[in-house]
Amino acid sequence: MALEPIDLIVVGLYALSLFFVAIWVSREPDNTTKNTEDYFLAGRALPWWAIGSSLIASNISAEQIIGQSGQGFAVGIAIAAYEWQAALVLLVVAKWFLPIFLKRQIYTMPQFLDQRFGGGVKSLMSVYWIVLYTAVNLTTVLWLGGLAMNSLMGWPVIICMTALGAFAAAYSLYGGLKAVALTDIIQVVILIIGGIAITWIVLSQLGQDTGAVGGFTKIYEELPGHFKMILNKDHPAYGDLPGIWTILGGLWVLHFSYWGFNQYIIQRALGAENLGEAQKGLAFAAFLKLFIPLIVVIPGIAAVMLASQGALDGSALAEKSDRTYGELMRFAPAGLRGLVFAALIAAVVSSLASMMNSISTIFTLDVYKSIVFDRSEQHYVFIGRIAAFLAMIIALVLAEPFIGGFESGFQAVQEYSGFIAPGVVAVFLLGFFSKRMNTTGAFVALFTSIAANIVLKLGTPDIPFIIRIWFVFMACMVLGWLVSGIIRNTDHADISTEDASFETAPLFNILSVIVLLLLVGLYIVFW
Asked: What is the pLDDT of residue 62?
């Protein structure tokens, strides 16, 4: 079912509005030009509401809307662990990590590693993050977004991906982080409205006379297996979500790597007006994370029953669950379908823009500037734009051959990220809180992460990757700490926690308690 003229008008109005707002907020006073702080960190002037909104808009990409909706179809509510546990991690990052980062006035994560462990560790991680964001994150978002557009519009996937990439580049290359973060406020509103709309529509389709509430009651009662957070060992998806290990194991490692040390996420907090605004922004994002499964997972579960009734092609969705959300969009009436489609575009392009900005930041400030260090601020801004554009081109080329063969793009991202995440988290945690940790220990932890993951994956393929990641993380922590004591060197700086304040404002504390209580309640209900 193609988009009708009213749908195209809605999508067109959204696109034009976003583009003009991006240009307007990015404008500079007369006779001034953007410097690196303006372009890469929005002039360090972001308020809490912009930070929280941008975090959610950047995070809820095609990986979440397309990938988790597909996993909702295939697995059920258990996939919501990626959303709900993230809320707790955001609070920890806000209280314990941000004070250290903002105290040091850093632009990038590699810059912190340079201050703590020296240029070698910084260079290694700069290359890793550039490759990961380009070859995994950008490609996955492009591919999944292209699949959804293909399901609704019938265009070739490569054309859909090119259109999404061009739109993201059109408004983000000029304005930098300020354009991305402030337009994300529009993106997150459209995203939530569109997400709630599709959830309401598909549940109403099932509920008929009883409406959306009746539809939810129906799937909750008739699909009890899809409303279990903790899967049994005999569940087909146990390998991806291994029961109690989702709470006790490596899922926390992935969360801390993503929310605490991931440039394209934490960059919003680095651009805050001050520490208090950054912490409130992360608490706001944590609160919103608790509601994300309503708009990404529940529609996927509803698709199971719609498929059993013949309203959807169940065999096709079972073969490629990532097509679930695109197929559900067909139930939306004309006009509203355009809004839902705009929400999907909002999710995709906001993430693409965020990743492009982070790739350009790391490449320009941590790689290029360390080699070419005597140029003007405007030159580095120009290089950042070129780097972002080239990253998008590379991602377009790699998307289908690299991600297209996976059954679930969402799980593919977790698997790839899991090879280095244990080492990254170990290096940062020991770098924060252990004076003993040194450069040699950091290298050992990072290489152990990759080597141990490869050995365990090949030697014990039946161990779920979340459990494997937890074992590898513990090995990285122990070996990094031991080697630092055995091979002592002085080529590192002690930037531990004495000079950072971990006190938080009453509002942050109240929000944290509310989030924790809601999180506990959700796990009790869906255990």
From this structure: 61
